[in-house]
Amino acid sequence: ARLVVLVSGGGTNLQALIDATTSADYGAEIVAVGADREGIEGLARAERAGIRTFVVRTADHPDRAAWDVALAEAVEDHQPDLVVLAGFMKLVGPAFLALFGGRTVNTHPSLLPSFPGMQAPKDALEFGVKVTGATLFVVDAGVDTGPIIAQVAVPVLDDDDVESLHERIKVSERTMLVDWIGRLVREASTGETP
Ligand code: GRF
After folding, report:
1. What is the residue with the minimal CA distance to atom 7 of ligand 1?
2. Contact in structure between 52 and 78 (CB atoms under 8 Å)
3. Ramachandran region, residue 55 (left: φ > 0; alpha: ψ -120 to 50; beta: rest)
4. Residue among 64, 59, 74, 108 at smallest CA distance from 88
5. Ligand 1 binding pocket includes 168 (Cβ within 6 Å)
6. pTM of the prediction?
């Protein structure tokens, strides 16, 4: 299966997928990595792995709707079977969802529906939960609201700060992502349920 992965930052989730796709029996290849900004480690990781990259910057488009169309076209160029948002910090819009709705998944560092949005580990820490985690879900038009595919629980430790908590979440998150992308692509190719 052909994966396009979209990133906005460090790309540790992307790196886990890159590592997994090096084995042929994983059943998927990353055909391109896209970002909404230049100069991020996620793009560098793709380049080091010899994976094509593209950037669609909001600043290059008159408004968010035009950016959404440009992103959809850039992704479509690579004919993905599945699009993975892995630390992608923009909301995809109607043009993107018209093409890739139902076959775009996103990973989020909390147990949705708790703590949607851009600050999930910080919100969880400030609320005082003792268990948080990560969620893999199918992207819809909302903010972190789509149908949940998988979740993993991660403990919050007494001496955690946002950084230590998010790092612990990311360890489990990348394992969940690799595991479930593998199942989804095998399911798609064999028609079996995971
Ligand atoms: C991940 O926890 C992702 O869920 C969240 O931000 C983090 C991105 O990490 N949106 P990376 O870019 O994959 O390292």
Report:
1. 87
2. yes
3. beta
4. 108
5. no
6. 0.95
Question: Which ranges constitute the DSSP H helices of the chain?
Answer: 12-21, 41-48, 64-76, 94-100, 120-127, 162-190
Count of positions (residues) in the chain: 194
Closest ligand 1 atom to Cα of 134? 4
pLDDT of 187 reads: 84
The CA distance from 99 to 153, in Å, is 32
**Interface pTM, i.e. ipTM:** 0.95
- Cβ–Cβ under 8 Å, residues 4 and 31: yes
List, as residue ranges, the binding site for (6R)-10-formyltetrahydrofolate: 64, 89-92, 106
CB 137 within 8 A of CB 112: yes
Element (H, E) at 35: strand 29-35
